[in-house]
Amino acid sequence: xxxxxxxxxxxxxxxxxxxxxxxxxxxxxxxxxxxxxxxxxxxxxxxxxxxxxxxxxxxxxxxxxxxxxxxxxxxxxxxxxxxxxxxxxxxxxxxxxxxxxxxxxxxxxxxxxxxxxxxxxxxxxxxxxxxxxxxxxxxxxxxxxxxxxxxxxxxxxxxxxxxxxxxxxxxxxxxxxxxxxxxxxxxxxxxxxxxxxxxxxxxxxxxxxxxxxxxxxxxxxxxxxxxxxxxxxxxxxxxxxxxxxxxxxxxxxxxxxxxxxxxxxxxxxxxxxxxxxxxxxxxxxxxxxxxxxxxxxxxxxxxxxxxxxxxxxxxxxxxxxxxxxxxxxxxxxxxxxxxxxxxxxxxxxxxxxxxxxxxxxxxxxxxxxxxxx
Length: 373
Hints:
Elements: E1 4-12, E2 16-19, H1 20-37, H2 39-43, H3 55-62, E3 66-69, H4 73-76, H5 95-111, E4 120-124, H6 135-143, E5 148-152, H7 158-172, E6 177-184, E7 204-212, E8 221-230, E9 236-237, E10 260-261, H8 263-284, E11 292-297, H9 302-313, H10 326-329, H11 336-343, E12 353-360, E13 364-372
Parallel strand pairs: 4-5, 4-6, 11-12
Antiparallel strand pairs: 1-7, 1-8, 2-3, 6-7, 8-13, 9-10, 12-13
């Protein structure tokens, strides 16, 4: 048996920023168009008028101030309200592979590795751009990696589930060097025309290299333990899938073909589930709250993270103990905790213990206890 370690991480950040003010201006223009077009039905009580959004509402509800996106023009067009991505030929790298490669190359450089050193690629994220062939295998080819690759989707928990799978395979000796990559094109499955969620997501790609600790080329984090759990819930759901055309309404536009959630129920049910999961994981490993130097939590909602931090530590987290990137990146699904880890781990000292945790649809939650070597 070998000891797995995270030896490098990388983040691809799209070039386009949408501030809350820009988003609200576009959304409110869409609302005005919608209400004008449906004025008679609204007056007759047949259709409900849409309400304006505001930057104050967004920040209070989420803690988000801006988000990065791959395409800004389409999202901010009041007559469209979703990204414009060009059609690529089957002979070109897909969009997910393109952004994944940036994150992978940064992670490999940090680990002192090249693509040929990798013998496992796991593409772990919320939404794949196609059913098959697997995005991971396309990334494997682009990297010049050996071995094998596969896709994994556990929604916002995909990164930590992917880390567990890779760490287990490194530990058993079935692979020597793995890369877990999370190319999250969340702008494609967000309903930008829904006031309750139009501000939530942003695009990004992250990657971590996991290999045998004895093979590490420099600073690294020992993966001491991983723990994953799932519990079925419909409170976060997206019904888009390959069976869509076979159903009675076929390809007709439906609200449930994009991201949907019951936010209040999610908060009420997921937060205690995550706090209990972390507590049980730490107890199993003989760790106490005071042993944790840092927690890198899923970046969905600041209030959720504050609540979890208080539950786990028994007090409000101090500055630096629970870094947030949500205000800049918004919710980036599985990638959020990895962004936080990548940006806020360089100052960790030898022997410092930290915990990476992601959670979301499923419900699902995954946690990884690591130590700076």
